[in-house]
Amino acid sequence: MLEKQLTGQRVDRSICAWFWEHTISQGDFPKLQPVIASPTHYLFQILREGITFLACTQVEMPPLMAIEFLCRVADVLSDYLGGLNEDLIKDNFVIVYELLDEMIDNGFPLTTEPNILREMIAPPNIVNKMLSVVTGNSSNMSDTLPGATSSCIPWRTADPKYANNEVYVDLVEEMDAIVNRDGVLVKCEIYGEVQVNSHLSGVPDLTLSFANPSILDDVRFHPCVRFRPWESQQILSFVPPDGQFKLMSYRVRKLKSSPIYVKPQLTSDAGTCRVSVLVGIRNDPGKTIDSITVQFQLPPCILSADLTSNYGTVNILANKTCSWSIGRIPKDKAPAMSGTLVLETGLERLHVFPTFQVGFRIMGVALSGLQIDKLDLKNLPKPPYKGFRALTRAGEFEVRS
């Protein structure tokens, strides 16, 4: 556990013990509420890659500010360390503390832009680790304050220069869907992000417009976006940070179809359960659907399982999770998985039916229907290279049996 006290009033570590006891008592840890009221504190928590980020306060405050800050801390650490896991945190705990020192001041968010933090704190690398061992100096802090901290554009490094100016815009979408046991689509919506990778000299001014912005709900913007052009004309006008960043996020609700279908059938009697699962394309998006997987948790009453498929591979993991990896759907046959589950002694029929988790990926298409109209750039000596891509993958895609 790494602990950082951010205000003058010290919080006793015993609150963490209360949090873990409360977490264990809830049972389903991934679905634990992000805001928890303890007898003495308000707790805010998010879970990323198996690591819990926990903040606590003794006074009331806007919950979304605390949750958003924890998400920003997780994003910055993932960017700095190249991922998030326990070993990376342990090996770079000095950098973690240095980042927290700069990201918050006396309990208030301060510097949260990765570009500015990189100028203040050098990211970990092999050379820095060797120098720290030889010299005994483990600090990566810069001796000078970045120029952008006093600029009106604090998210952008001071006067970057590139021989080849280029900017890439990616639409990355996740489809969340629930299909009931009758095959009816109960819920289907898209959570999407507009991700930009900018390598432009000077201080460019960009304008991004969509062909159909009216379909967007719950939009959230990077601080660089000017709100008035969006409010009046549905146009994104901004001076971009240098490098990769998330320009905006959005939701598209009430979609009426999904690209693939999964049809499970379970029948049980005499102490056994017969399983049959079919997978196919429901609506062809015009691009290849790959990385298709189907997973489900075997009920506790199952003693053994014998499952096979006519395409792909089926694995039963140690925690009783059945994973069927399909990849791409072939043109000559529909993938099918079938087999038998043996119930525990004394149980004639299966009374707890599993929920199937579906995964897939589609390169080159945004299933929400969102389309980029144009991207204009100003304050550049010559026209840069502009690239656009789209990706849709499954989020929480559940099929109930």
From TrEMBL:
Pfam families in the cross-refs: Adap_comp_sub
A Gene Ontology biological process term: vesicle-mediated transport
Signal peptide: none
GO cellular component: clathrin adaptor complex; endomembrane system
Entry's localization field: Endomembrane system
Occurrences of domain MHD (ranges): 164-400
Swiss-Prot/TrEMBL keywords: Membrane, Protein transport, Transport
Alphabetized PANTHER family for the sequence: AP COMPLEX SUBUNIT MU (PTHR10529)
Family (UniProt): Belongs to the adaptor complexes medium subunit family.
Protein known as: MHD domain-containing protein
